């Protein structure tokens, strides 16, 4: 499944498109259909700042076909500072765990063929 144009545009601007439950105000990723807190299906779009910290990652030194020129890189799960929501993205030039300690501040800087592009702060 490909990302929606609105999500891609937000990421290219350094943000994350999320959804806010119209009933209880819970902030969720834009991919959900039901609110995890109240079960409502009514949402409004909200834009979150794409800054946060690394909570886990995998270093890709042997990438899948078509991504050879991008290695090594890290597939990162980050927790957004302003919501606690976790999103994943790619961070270039990460070869060893010493290059990316858990808790490293990162930000969304774009969107490309890999998905969300991250950068260390």
UniProtKB/TrEMBL annotation:
InterPro entries according to UniProt: ChsH2_C, ChsH2_Znr, NA-bd_OB-fold, Thioester_dehydratase-like
Domain ChsH2 rubredoxin-like zinc ribbon span(s) in chain numbering: 9-43
A Pfam family matched in the record: OB_ChsH2_C
Residues annotated as transmembrane: none
Boundaries of every ChsH2 C-terminal OB-fold domain copy: 48-109
Cross-referenced PANTHER family: BLR3430 PROTEIN
Name of this chain's protein: Nucleotide-binding protein
